Amino acid sequence: MAKKLFRTEKDALGEISVPTDAYYGSFTARALDNFRISGMTAPAEFKIALGITKLACARANRLLGELEKDKCSAIEKACLEFCEGKFDAEFMLDIFQAGAGTSYNMNANEIIANRANEILGGEKGSYDLVHPNNHVNMAQSSNDVIPTAIRIALVMMSPAFIEEIELFIKSLEKKGREFKNIKKVGRTHLQDAVPITLGEEFMAYATAIKNELAAVKDATEDLKKLGIGGTAIGTGINAPPKFKEAVIPEISKIVGIKFSKAPNSITTTHSLQAFTRFSSTLRNFANEMFRIMGDLRLMSAGPRAGLREIKLPKVQPGSSIMPAKLNPSIPECMSMICGQVIGIDSIVSFAAQGGQFELNWYTPLIMPNLIMAVNILTNGLKTTREKCIDGLEACEDVIAESFKKSLCTATLLVPKLGYHEVARLVKIAMKTGRNLEEVVKEEVGEVGEV
């Protein structure tokens, strides 16, 4: 007898066909049919965090006596397999879907329930032993599960991100020490201004990134405050009184990072402030990185007709038509990453102001964008450090020649000669093309060391 290709499941809307071998169920089948939008699916970080949330909830419900031991054990095993990626092919809903992530929540609930039923000897789609809503989703709602999973995902990603920022700062500081005695022209408005050292410039870059690192760490701490247990609108309806106190320690234990209960779970349900704050720190970080990358591109301009103050590592040919041309490829890549992150912040800001009353339902839009922002910044920092900053060299001869020809020491003469007198001398130097030091000696005489 030929194997049946589909099973029939029933829900509030009636009957629907689901592939016989599928671990997902009726809700997911409808969502798959409804939302064929982009082909983009949830990132792995979110899938794992969602599985962790379900695992912690099952353990908390067992601890509180709400979930039988055999059901809990089966759900636990199914959750662990879900986190390991066993069901990735079945967790494939489009990121553009109905609000609040209900489709994501039910996709996970159905997969975990069907796998748990299978473990207990039942059949997929029967739900007699373990039910997606009654058991896997016990004491939960999509409205507290999805924001919690997003927070967990971002917090789990943060150590690698923070480590890359710290390594990047060290790399900048190393160059600052290496270049500390290389005096060069400091510029304002892209015009010669006053003397500075190349080392001072790189130390200043490091300090700017340090400032942003502090903000990233602070905003990450805010994400550790979870609203799980608030259920539908944050009031905790249908959840045991001690559920929050039981589930959050379980999440902390599984992840290995300490999470805490949000002061007000109604707030965490309707306000996405923690996400906008985190996103804004990423935007500010991207702003600083974009500025630094711009400086590196300008300082490396050449190889003969530009500033040529620094030499970037050779990573790839720069042109399909111009032989031997080299481009600032890594700073260009990092600049594009920064542009993407700045754009993401606009999306997150838009989403955060879109909720009404007791729920912000834009979480499915926020989730993939913030995860992408952290991922590309982490990878971009590593690439920029290893393939650009670490191998960057100073063109000392060019810098010295430019410094000698420049008029940037003029400001140092002002305390001795006065503003208008120095301006007169600068004009002479510019008109005659002579070195300012020569003009000063000829017009004024020796003025001492400047």
Q: Total strand count, please?
A: 8
The CATH fourth-level homologous superfamily of the largest domain: Fumarase/aspartase (Central domain)
Strand content: 5-15%
The chain-level structural class is mainly alpha
Largest sheet: 2 strands, antiparallel
Q: Within the largest sheet, what's the order of strands?
A: 1-2
State the CATH topology of the largest domain: Fumarase C, Chain A, domain 2
Helix content: 55-70%
Tell me what the CATH architecture of the largest domain is.
Up-down Bundle
Cα radius of gyration in angstroms: 30 Å
First-last Cα distance: 98 Å
How would you sum up this structure, described in words?
The protein is mostly helical. The chain has three domains: 6-138, Orthogonal Bundle (Fumarase C, Chain B, domain 1); 155-225 and 267-398, Up-down Bundle (Fumarase C, Chain A, domain 2); 409-443, Ribonucleotide Reductase Protein R1, domain 1. It contains 16 helices and eight strands. The strands form four sheets. The protein has a two-stranded antiparallel ribbon with strand order 1-2. Helix 4 (102-119) crosses helix 6 and helix 10 packs parallel to helix 12. It is elongated, with a radius of gyration of 30 Å. The chain starts with 5 loop residues before the first strand and ends in a 7-residue tail after the last helix. The mean pLDDT is 96.
Kindly summarize this structure in a few lines:
The strands form four sheets. The protein has a two-stranded antiparallel ribbon. Strands 3-4 form a two-stranded antiparallel sheet.
